Amino acid sequence: MNMQRTWWWAALMVGCVGGQSGNEGALTDRGCHITSTTAVGWDEQSTLDVSPAEALASVAGSCQATLTWDASGFNTNRVTPVTGATQLSVDVKLDENSARVAESQSEGLTRLYCPTTLEIDAHVRIVSDDGAFDEEGITVVTYTMESGVDRITLEIDANALGGDFSIEAASGETATVIFELAADIEMCAGGLDVMTEQPMGNGAIGLMGGHLGGWSLP
């Protein structure tokens, strides 16, 4: 896992910001909006010529790896501890009854290609053996014919973190911790990121993102 710290910043109008909520996370990131969904059985062949079981089964399971992080270059938030390493356990369970095919269309003035996706709800739990991390939540896993399984992310408000690891945003800002998981649980790889939002005035917000660390098998 490449541990080099990277940071990005952007200023956006509030009305243009797309967040990950419900079942539109990955599509919203692309500038697409879901217009309809159709339920599909776990072993049923979908309109994408693949069943949820065939496309998504590799996501589910458990694994353990060492997570290391370094926030020494991140000045706008107080990260505690600044650096560290811990043994991480990752568990992903799929709700097979939630599988569905989603159709979407482009949002805004720019016309984008919005692929048909196969989606499923997943419960993700991330726990470290030393108590630094104790997080869980529901996210959406998506599959497209063009790209396979999309990135899997679990987003946690920094104020709702369950372990000893903490991020204190600067006054007037909000911080979100993002765990990004590999599409194949057997790879046992992922990243630890943070995104900060700051009001900029005139209806705009500033977004700053940073990569803190990650985990992978030796």
Query: What general outline do the C-alpha atoms trace?
Result: globular
Order of helices and strands: EHEHEEEEEEEEEEEE
What number is the mean pLDDT? Answer: 84
Please report the total strand number as a whole number.
Answer: 14
Helicity level: under 10%
Radius of gyration (Å): 18 Å
Structural class, by secondary structure, is mainly beta
Strand content: over 45%
Oligomer: single chain
The span between the termini is: 9 Å
Major beta sheet summary: 12 strands, antiparallel
Tally of domains: 1
Uncertain ranges: 1-25
Number of helices: 2
Can you summarize this structure?
By secondary structure, the protein is mainly beta. It has 2 helices and 14 strands; from the N terminus they run βαβαββββββββββββ.
Structure notes:
The chain has one domain. The protein is 5% helix and 53% strand. The chain is built from two helices and 14 strands; from the N terminus they run βαβαββββββββββββ. The strands form two sheets. Strands 1, 2, 3, 5, 6, 7, 8, 9, 10, 12, 13 and 14 form a twelve-stranded antiparallel β-sheet that branches. Strands 4-11 form a two-stranded antiparallel ribbon. The N terminus is likely disordered.
